[in-house]
Model the fold of this input.
Amino acid sequence: MNALTDVKFLQPHRHTIGKPYKQLVVEYDRETKAVWTYLNPTGTPCFNLGLLNDLIDNHKSFNANGGKAMCEGSLEPIEYFVGASKTEHIFNYGGDLALFVLLIKSRDRQALLHYAKMCIDCLHGRLTSYDTNAVTISLIQGDALGGGFESALSSNVIIAEESSRMGFPEILFNLFPGMGAYSLLARRLGAKMAEEMILSGKIYSASELHQLGLVDVLVPDGQGENAVYDFIHTNNRKKNGMRAMYECRRHTNPVTYDELMNITEVWVDAALRLEDRDLKMMGRLVRSQQRQLASRKEGQAINPANDFVE
Done:
């Protein structure tokens, strides 16, 4: 939608809400009626079991409160859910590859399926706006790969900073992204383009995805959070119509829980067919992610061409 712009909106004060999660930070802004959920995983910034548990528990808390946020002892309305990351320059690397290697080597199909189901529970919850009519926004301020990209795509709106990158590298270890990628991409871009993106393993710049229509708002680095507030205030007068439009999108092109689970079963079976060379590549990616994280923390530049080279 929006081209690269300079955003100047100042952020209101937000209150921390919810439980003291170990890998999640949840805040509420009364002025915009927005819940901000920050991924804050320990170790490699991926969807580990602890983070998935926190996300599912947070979703249940909104359901228990009738789709409202408990803030300083009172239930407050929610009009926006914003998903972001506390890890600098990284939104999320996706699946817990180190866990995958262990479960595949031990042939533990049930544990793989359990992990995948947790991912689907998180994704489908966001696809349905957590059973509310709130608008969901993904704020991408770095790399969103694999399941991280799937998570971003599950929102109504994607706002990305200029240096962000997104893509599905799973084909590098002979697998595919099995927690929503095909369903979400096919509905946005068509089956042919979805398959090309998945099979190429290409990591796209935010600008490229903006041109494809997957990124809705593209902003300079460091202005992502202000861009979210700017989006909310710019659309405030038409928010009722906007929410209704996104609800129409869900009715017109529904991504059902059954569809996601059926594809996840395919993913589990495919994962169990991986050979030793594929698992070795998966291990290389784990080490690459760890190196990238260390380099990011030290403020070093990352060369995309060397991401998966040892």
User: Anything to note?
Assistant: The chain is about 45% helix and 15% strand. The longest strand covers residues 24-29. Residues 15-297 form a domain with the 2-enoyl-CoA Hydratase; Chain A, domain 1 fold (CATH 3.90.226.10). The mean pLDDT is 92.
